[in-house]
Amino acid sequence: MLSTDKLDPKLAEWLVAANQLSSRQRANNTRVTPEMMRSGLARMTESFVTRQSRVASITDTVLTSESHSVPLRVYDPAPDHPTPVVLFIHGGGHMCGSISVYDPICRRLAAASGQLIVAVEYRLAPEWPYPAALEDCLAVIRGLWSRLDQLPLRFLPALSLVGDSGGGALCATLSALSQQDNSLPIQRQALIYPSLDYTLSCPSVRQRARGYLLEQDRIEWYFDHYLQQNEPRREVSPLFMPISARHPATWLATAGFCPLRDEGVAYIDRLQRAGVNAQRHHEDTMIHAYLNLEDLAADACARTYQSLSRFLAAVLS
Predict the structure, then answer these.
(1) How many helices (H) and strands (E) in the chain?
(2) What phi and psi values does residue 102 have, to the nearest 5 degrees?
(3) Which pTM does this prediction carry?
(4) For residue 266, which of 186, 191, 174 has the smallest C-alpha distance?
């Protein structure tokens, strides 16, 4: 049963139709495929993120690692001024999303923050299971300054990570690794309704198990396609990784009707208890992926980008 006591009315109305479609698929035993989920996220984002923020310069390039090339898209909102760099790692359950799908969100982030945004086209499951996406992101961070030096850009070597959902899981893993790895010069990370617990042990997973776009059985399906070699799920979950005072400063957005809400709360609590600069932005009436539904959640998106941009600006403090 959809609880609408605090749910944003526009999202509640949209969810009624979305849930009817989901119910028909279940009743018909429709076999969901990665291709269906990828096209669904692409259509949703294209339909509901229709505001095209203007960015002065956008460049497609690649970073060549030892094994292959990783596509990148660079958004430069201020070509005449050197700015800090943000590595954007998109969400999509480790299976969906791309540079193209997230283009309007990266434009919005570049315009709001005024910083150089580098979006990563990492490899997706199930064709490329864990740890392929993580390896791509590691290669990009380690080669980022030299690659940007080869482009006609002005930038400051100050790095923040931003990621939503599954991209947030990658960001948090990279930040955990950076505590002991000087080749990962991450100063800040911003996680937007991130996936942090592959064991799904937090209460909100069951409280918001069905009816709010991201559903528990779909999360489990994503994880099964991503973690194909019986990886120890607790050990690869950022929520349970070691935290020290060297951990990057963290900003994290949660949504009241998101099944991943409580793992975000628990993660921020762990960081704060370890003495890390960590803060949480909460949108009580929102669902998971509300940035991909901006036309239905304009005020919440505006608040989120504003809060996120303030956090990113402090990278030079």
Answers:
(1) 9, 8
(2) -90, 10
(3) 0.97
(4) 191
